[in-house]
Specification:
245 residues, alpha/beta, Rossmann fold, 6-stranded mixed β-sheet, 4-stranded antiparallel β-sheet, 10 strands, binds adenosine-5'-diphosphate, Metal_Ion_Import_ABC, ATP-binding
Length: 245
C-alpha cells in the first residue's frame, strides 16, 4: 500500500505557487530523502504530505485517507525544522515530552502501565535515559531531535516526517541518528526526511525526491547522483528530467 500519494499538487502561500504540479507516491516502508535548494518548497511539501497545509489544487492521501482529514494523528511523527530553536522555552522534562506521545492512546484518566512501558522503551530506544528528568529547553539540538523521535515512537507512529533533523548536530551524533533511523525503517516505519547534505541523504535513503517548486527527480539514489537532475534543480532550470511516477 502507498503510505503517501501526492497527485498533481500545487500550493502557494500567496499568488505564486511554491509547490507546483507535484505528483509522487511513497510506498509503506520506504525511506524518502527530500532534497532541493533553499526555499525550493521542501518544508511546504512535507507539510502538505502530513496534512498541515491543504493543496490549492490536486490531492494528497496519507495511508489511503485525504491528508487534511487524517485524524489518526498518532500515526504521524513530525519533527519540525526549527525544533531546536523554538523549544528553548519548553519548561517540561524529557519524560513529560515523550509521554505526550501517549495522549492519543489514552482514555480518560491516568496513564496505564502500558503507557509507562511504552514511554520508557521509547526513551531507551533513542538513548536518552540519562536525560529523562532534564528540561527539554536545556538540551542540545541533537538531543531534542531524539526527544521528538522518542515521542513519535511512544505514539507508535507509522510515518516519521523529519525536517533537517541533524542541522547543528556533530558528525558522530549524526551517524548515530541515521543508524537509529535505519533500525526504525527496517522495522517498517516509513520515513520522509529533508536533508541538505546530498552525500548523506543519498547514502541513507531508499529513494530520493528532488524539488525546486516542481519535482525534478524521484527515484533511486544511485540514479539520482548520475543524472543532471541535481545540477538542473539547483541551477534553477525548470526542465523536468526524471519522474518515475
Ligand atoms: P525549503 O524547505 O525548501 O527551504 P519552504 O517550503 O520553506 O522551502 O519555502 C518555500 C517558499 O515558500 C519560500 O520562498 C518561502 O519563503 C515561502 N514560505 C514558506 N513558508 C511560508 C509562509 N508561512 N508564508 C509565506 N511564505 C512562506
Amino acid at each position: 500500500m502507498a503510505a503517501i500519494e501526492v497527485r498533481d499538487v500545487t500550493f502557494g502561500y500567496g499568488e505564486q505557487p511554491v509547490v507546483e504540479s507535484v505528483s509522487l507516491d511513497v510506498a509503506e516502508g520506504e525511506f524518502l530523502g527530500l532534497v532541493g535548494p533553499n526555499g525550493s518548497g521542501k518544508t511546504t511539501l512535507l507539510k502538505l504530505i502530513i496534512g498541515l497545509e491543504a493543496p490549492d489544487s490536486g490531492t494528497v492521501r496519507l495511508f489511503d485517507e485525504p491528508a487534511v482529514e487524517f485524524d489518526d494523528g498518532e500515526r504521524i511523527g513530525y519533527v519540525p525544522q526549527d525544533v531546536a530553536a523554538t523549544e528553548d522555552e519548553m519548561p517540561i522534562t524529557v519524560e513529560e515530552a515523550v509521554r505526550m506521545g501517549r495522549y492519543p492512546h489514552r482514555w480518560v484518566g491516568r496513564f496505564t502501565d502500558d503507557d509507562r512501558r511504552s514511554v520508557r522503551e521509547a526513551i531507551e530506544r533513542v538513548g536518552i535515559e540519562d536525560l529523562a528528568d532534564r528540561r527539554v529547553g536545556r538540551l542540545s539540538g541533537g538531543q531534542r531531535q531524539r526527544v521528538f523521535i522518542a515521542r513519535a515512537l511512544a505514539s507508535e507512529a507509522d510515518l516519521l516526517a523529519l525536517d533537517e533533523p541533524t542541522v547543528g548536530v556533530d558528525a558522530e551524533s549524526r551517524e548515530a541518528f541515521y543508524r537509529l533511523l535505519h533500525e526504525l525503517n527496517d522495522e517498517g516505519i516509513t520515513i520522509v526526511l529533508i536533508e541538505h547534505d546530498i552525500g548523506v541523504v543519498t547514502t541513507h535513503a531508499s529513494e530520493i525526491a528532488c524539488l525546486n517548486r516542481r519535482l525534478y527527480f524521484h527515484g533511486d539514489p544511485e540514479e539520482f547522483v548520475e543524472t543532471d537532475a541535481l545540477a538542473d534543480a539547483y541551477g534553477g532550470s525548470q526542465r523536468v528530467i526524471h519522474h518515475d511516477h
